[in-house]
Amino acid sequence: MTIQPATARGERTRAKLLAAAETVFSAHGYADASISRITDEAGVGQGTFYLYFASKLEIFEELVDDLNRRVRHAMTEAGEGARDRIEAERAGFRAFFRFTAEHPALYRIVREAELVSPRALRLHYTRIVEGYIGALSTARAAGEIGDIDPTVAAWALMGIGEMIGMRWVLWGAGEVGDDADPMASGTSEVPDEVFEQMMRFIEGALRPPREEGDA
């Protein structure tokens, strides 16, 4: 069981271990990561590790949870004050792509969770979708989006963000290649023209149909 620190110093140490785990799991993968690599990266002794985490699996699952919490916070904070759901989507996607550019480990670690900890993977997606469904349901009731199933829309939107981010952020480093080559986009961020095309697609799917006589 993860132990919650009782002091500010303990919180800092635990945060250092999680940051180190993010680096190590991203660089080496779960199988080749080790507690000694994590503690070396964090600059603490192995005994200190066990004050906060019982095992490599436990810190991995906590890292998935930590990344999930931070990305959701970034997206929610970015969307605050938006005039409508479309504007909130735009702000939220911008925040998501910024976060993934700063934390590319999010993709790699979530992908590994499919085999390492299916429970953590399911929780990661569930927590994102739950908030999404609520926001889309509210927007539908207010007439900001069309009569679309919020659950289907939430999963579809999450898939769009994940795949666009993977193509242009995670796999971006390298020479510019063919449009269908995900390993050679020549960028480590989502280009403005790509973002705008994505939002055009999303807006077309979400916006209510125009009534006859609308301009």
UniProtKB/TrEMBL annotation:
UniProt keyword annotations, A-Z: DNA-binding, Transcription, Transcription regulation
Pfam families: TetR_N
Annotated DNA-binding residue span(s): 34-53
Top-level lineage group: Bacteria
Residues annotated as domain HTH tetR-type: 11-71
Keyword DNA-binding attributed: yes
Record keyword Transcription regulation present: yes
Matches recorded under PANTHER family: HTH-TYPE TRANSCRIPTIONAL REGULATOR BETI (PTHR30055:SF234), HTH-TYPE TRANSCRIPTIONAL REGULATOR RUTR (PTHR30055)
UniProt protein name: TetR/AcrR family transcriptional regulator
Organism whose genome encodes this protein: Protaetiibacter mangrovi
